[in-house]
Design a protein that fits this description.
It is built from nine helices and eleven strands. With about 270 residues, it is α/β, with parallel strands linked by helices. The protein has a single domain, classed as Rossmann fold, CATH 3.40.50. A hairpin with an 8-residue loop joins strand 7 and strand 8. GO terms for molecular function: AMP kinase activity; ATP binding.
Length: about 270
């Protein structure tokens, strides 16, 4: 057997073993009773998943779960799971789905004990394997796929700023694209920081144009199977953004009102802000 064939065969065996271990780990996470109703927000970096999912969850009374924040909190607190995650990060490994799902499930259970039975999840899933695993612990009723033109995404990512003092996020990008080729104009004024935060603004070191475009390429490649996963189940809603929060949020809420109350799958269709 040629070396390349042997390498591919070994890789396939390792991948199969990893997937089997994931299924074993995740089987213990399944709820013994009904899975909680869950909505997920999908979309590329810079589209505003965190912003819109937070506002939507407030409006509909959903518990908002940002998977990235949960992971960082576990690592910061030094919990048992957090230590496992930190070891993975130090080794340069991807976090196992079982660890992320365990944290999400624990958050589900805590919120459920406090009377919450509907959730909105952003930042997860990112792969079909994660989407399949999520089905074991959550009843995903709708996946909202936010979309925005690439040139706008790049500008928004370049404009992201974080206040080191208060921890809030802002965006100094002032975006205007005229209407062209049948597409409406895009107007997004900056989300400027207050005066007391200006001197404390910092930009992420990896928010450079080459890195941002690379992240968008990777996302586009990885997102298609996840979108297809939910579309095949009649649970995907495409929503293209054409304006800032004041213009987009009311239209998004209007589209979501009937969907958030429907337990059965819906047909995929497109909406525009």
């Amino acid at each position: 057997m040629a070396r390349s064939q042997l390498f591919r065969a070994c890789s396939a065996v390792r991948r199969a073993c990893w997937q089997w271990e994931q299924r074993v780990d995740l089987s213990s996470l399944a709820f013994s009773d009904a899975r909680p109703a869950t909505f997920v927000f999908l979309g590329p970096p810079g589209v505003g998943k965190g912003t819109y999912s937070g506002r939507v969850s407030d409006y509909f009374g959903l518990a908002h779960i940002a998977s990235g924040d949960l992971v960082r909190d576990e690592m910061r607190k030094g919990t048992e799971i957090g230590k496992e995650m930190e070891e993975c990060v130090k080794r340069g490994d991807l976090l196992p789905d079982a660890l992320i799902l365990r944290v999400i499930r624990e958050h589900f259970m805590t919120a459920h004990s406090e009377g919450t039975d509907r959730f909105l999840l952003d930042g997860f899933p990112r792969t079909v394997e994660q989407a399949e695993a999520l089905e074991q612990i959550a009843d995903v009723q709708l996946a909202v796929n936010l979309a925005l033109r690439e040139e706008v995404l790049v500008e928004k990512c370049l404009g992201r700023r974080l206040c080191k003092k208060c921890g809030k996020n802002y965006n100094i990008a002032n975006i205007y694209l005229p209407a062209s080729n049948g597409r409406p104009e895009i107007v997004m004024p900056p989300l400027s920081p207050p005066a007391e935060c200006v001197e404390h603004m910092e930009q992420r070191s990896d928010d450079t144009e080459p890195v941002i475009r690379r992240r968008l390429e990777v996302y586009a490649r990885e997102a298609q199977p996840v979108e297809r996963f939910y579309a095949e189940r009649g649970k995907l809603l495409d929503f293209e953004i054409f304006g800032g929060i004041p213009q987009t949020l009311p239209r998004l809420l209007e589209v979501l009102k009937p969907k958030m109350e429907m337990p059965q799958p819906i047909s995929r269709h497109s909406s525009a802000a």
